[in-house]
Amino acid sequence: SLFEDEEELGKYLRLGLNTEYDNQIQFSPKDLILVGGRRGAGKSLCCANIANSVFEGGKSAIYFTIEMDSRSILQRLCSIATGVPAGRLRSKNLSVTEWEKVAGWWASRFQRGQELLHDYKDHRDFENFHKKLTTTCELLPEKQLDVVYDPSLTIGKIRAAVETKVKGSMDIGVIIVDYINQVKRSNTPSRGGQYDWTEQIEVSKALKAMAQEYKIPVFSPYQTDASGEARFAKGILDAADAAFSLESWEHEDNCVTFKCVKIRNNAPIDFTSTMNWETLQMGPESAMTPVEKEDSAHKTGEDINDI
């Protein structure tokens, strides 16, 4: 057929990081999308925001995490979804309204969740509410934020987990692997070690093959060096259908820039999104970079803080 049918078009991925960008470009269910950044640039936050966007869109996100455990990822997802500051969420120092937002988000993952949420609003005992949900209710079978924590993640383990979910009734919108440089082909030691360039390239190829086989887009961060190039192996970008370089600027600038370094079948478009470092929310609104603000202030004579 010359054109894709409606079912296949419905599998296209909107990153959810910038509305203007999403209106121009969506990614095929067979695509491998990579985002590079230095340590602390926000690569994992990017993963969490995409997972939340897919979940809010009515589909499941499978999130493979290597360095952060499942609870840490779920807390980030909760903060992004509810707008509750992540620091206060971790310490459970929340207002009544914020507790209700958190309870509503947690209930959205369970069958009969809304029923127990109604009871929670009467007694306001989150621990009791949480216990009842997890012991008496099943997770929604078709829509989940499925976090898989494995410090020794291999391609085989990823494939086995995805295969199990695909055979069930789960509608998977994205597979997230955080992050590609830490994944191994197998548990058998390679001659050059985990960070051997051939190992990294083969992992990238395997993730691309997985996207093609299951028709589910795969998203994964990678580390960059000081020059912005991929660490260990530039060849990891060869298998990717799109790759972005992440610039987080200073925290007080409250924005992140995604520079497109590779894309197939579309024009390379950069975009800058708002960044709330308290709630960890990226976008979806566009923002001006500090450089753009300075240029605009110079042209108009305005104070840069007013732009």
Q: Briefly, what is this?
A:
By secondary structure, the protein is α/β, with parallel strands linked by helices. The chain has helices at 6-9, 19-24, 43-56, 70-82, 86-91, 96-107, 113-123, 126-136, 155-167, 197-214, 290-300; strands spanning 32-37, 60-65, 145-149, 172-178, 218-223, 242-247, 255-263, 271-276, 281-286. The radius of gyration is 20 Å and the shape is globular.
Q: Top keywords for this entry?
A:
307 residues; 39% helix; 9-stranded mixed beta sheet; alpha/beta; globular; 11 helices
Side-by-side strand order of the widest sheet: 3-2-4-5-1-6-7-8-9
Strand coverage percent: 15-25%
Number of DSSP helices?
Answer: 11
The percentage helix is 25-40%
Count of extended strands: 9
State the separation between the terminal residues, measured CA to CA. 49 Å
Write the element-wise H/E pattern from the N-terminal end onward: HHEHEHHHHHEHEHEEEEEH
Please outline the major beta sheet.
Answer: 9 strands, mixed
Based on CA atoms alone, the radius of gyration comes out at 20 Å
Q: Which term fits the overall shape?
A: globular
Write down the overall mean pLDDT: 90
Class from secondary-structure proportions: alpha/beta
